[in-house]
Design a protein that fits this description.
The structure is a single chain. A two-stranded antiparallel ribbon has the order 1-2. The protein is an all-alpha fold. The protein is rod-shaped, with a radius of gyration of 65 Å. It has a domain of 192 residues.
Length: 510
């Protein structure tokens, strides 16, 4: 798994961060009355930092998913091992059952044969005993009948001895033959009855055995059915777990690809940010060099304190602007995050109110940015050319004081008119200087300049500051806080005299 390219930052002895660049940093200036701009910090709402945090969270989540995947794979392997062991045990039990069944069939066949022989012998004994009892009964009956017949014959012997003797011999011979025939038929019938009885007993035994076998087979079938249902349920659970693991692996693969794509995009964005940071660093070094040159030039000039105060004021204004911009960007990001969180829920009137507030804040931010840009453009405009130097004369000092006051109170138009009046006074003073009366020039120039200013005020070209303040107070009451702060900054810039504005406007962007 590829990791994000870490950017190494090395702290220099000056306390500033150096990205191992070959560009030498400027030396810290000894600030007498000015402040050098602090190094740019990474703001809290930096997208690279946020993406880095998101990537770290995604990496932790991926590691957790990998650990869960390993656990599930281990559990799956254990279940597969258990299933294989159970399958081997099942096969062993099946072989044992088959052997036991074979032994049972052998013993059952042997017992059946013995039982059949026993039943045959029993039936034969019963039939023989029944036949013998029947024969004894018949013999006794026949014996009784024979005695009765003998008595009758003894009674008839007196009538005809010859005939009776012949008849008696014939009767005895016929009776013996009948008895023999009856005994034979009895034996045959008893044998047939014994055979039929043995067959009936065999059929009953077979029926009983078949019923027992059916009951056993039903029980075995039910047990096997339960076993198969249990195995099918286990197999279904294993298949579900396997399919779930496959789905989880597919989802993890997709997430891994997405994370790889995000990491690649993040890497590209980091490379672009690195290029931008290098460009900004080069620009900062160039601007720092320019600022050193400007500060050296300002230190050499006469009005060094005013210029340094102006630069410090511009730097403070820029910092406040950056703080306000960062604050509004953070508020917009927070509102956007809340809006994204609220989008998952059903619409709410509070959400609409927040959206309207967000739109108003964005419009106010856009208007404030436009005003800031206008103010920066005004600051970038070159100041008016300075007036030609006047001869160092004492009476002209109040004119300069009045000119500075008019510049502060009247603005740029008053300054232009004052310069025109001053040039007119100088033009009037030149012929007198040629004529040889240099001492009366200041006295003539001052009333002319004052008269021009008075005429300009009477004509309405100058505006008083009081209604302007009232208008600004009304605007402050109507406009939000951030816009009022920007207007205060712009008004403070407008109140500053033109001679204090630096012609190196590039320092504002530091």
């Amino acid at each position: 798994m590829s990791t994000t390219a870490s950017v190494k930052y090395v702290a220099t002895p000056n306390g500033k961060i150096n990205n191992n660049s070959s560009i030498p940093l400027r030396k810290p200036l000894s600030r007498q009355s000015s402040t050098v701009s602090s190094p740019s910090r990474i703001p809290v709402n930096d997208p690279a930092h946020r993406w880095k945090l998101k990537f770290e969270e995604a990496e932790e989540r991926r590691k957790q998913l990998l650990t869960e995947k390993e656990k599930t794979l281990r559990s799956l392997n254990e279940l597969e091992k258990k299933y294989m062991n159970l399958q081997i045990k099942h096969e062993q039990l099946e072989t044992e059952l088959f052997e036991k069944n074979e032994e049972f069939t052998r013993l059952s066949t042997a017992s059946k044969n013995l039982y059949k022989e026993y039943e045959i012998l029993k039936n034969q004994y019963e039939t023989e005993t029944r036949a013998m009892s029947g024969a004894l009964k018949d013999a006794t009956q026949w014996y009784k009948e024979n005695k009765e017949l003998k008595r009758k014959t003894m009674l008839l012997m007196d009538k005809d001895a010859v005939d009776e003797g012949v008849d008696a011999g014939e009767g005895e011979s016929t009776g013996d033959n009948d008895i023999e025939n009856l005994n034979k038929t009895i034996k045959q019938l008893s044998a047939e009855v014994a055979e039929l009885q043995t067959e009936v007993d065999q059929l009953k035994q077979q029926e009983f055995q078949t019923t027992e076998e059916n009951v056993k087979l039903g029980e075995d079938l039910e047990s096997e059915r339960r076993k198969t249902e249990k195995l099918e349920s286990k197999l279904g659970d294993l298949q579900k777990e396997h399919n779930q693991l496959l789905r989880v692996m597919e989802m993890m693969r997709k997430e891994l690809e997405e994370y790889k794509q995000k990491e690649e995009d993040h890497r590209q964005s980091l490379a672009a940010l690195k290029k931008e940071s290098d460009a900004h660093k080069r620009e900062r070094n160039v601007l720092a060099h320019q600022s050193t040159l400007i500060l050296q030039g300002l230190n050499d000039s006469d009005n060094a304190g005013d210029y340094m105060m102006l630069l410090q004021e511009i730097e403070d204004l820029k910092r406040t602007l950056e703080d306000d911009r960062n604050k509004y960007e953070e508020e917009i990001n927070m509102l956007q995050e809340r809006l994204e969180e609220q989008q998952s829920f059903p619409p709410d009137p509070q959400v609409e109110i927040l959206e309207e507030r967000l739109r108003l804040a964005e419009s106010e931010l856009v208007s404030a940015q436009q005003r800031v840009e206008e103010a920066e453009q005004r600051l970038r405009c070159p100041p008016p050319p300075p007036p030609p130097p006047l001869p160092p004369m004492a009476p002209q000092a109040p004119l300069r004081r009045r000119r500075s006051r008019l510049l502060i109170d009247g603005g740029a138009t008053a300054a232009k008119q004052l310069e025109e009046g001053q040039t007119l006074s100088e033009q009037k003073a030149e012929p007198s200087a040629v004529g040889g009366t240099p001492e009366k020039k200041p006295a003539a120039a001052v009333p002319c300049a004052n008269e021009d200013i008075i005429n300009a005020i009477k004509s309405g070209q100058f505006t008083l500051r009081k209604p302007k303040k009232e208008k600004e107070n009304k605007d402050k009451e109507q406009q939000p806080k951030a816009v009022s702060e920007l207007l205060n900054i712009l008004s403070s810039l407008r109140r500053a005299p033109k001679k204090r504005q630096s012609q190196y406007i590039g320092d504002v962007q530091l």
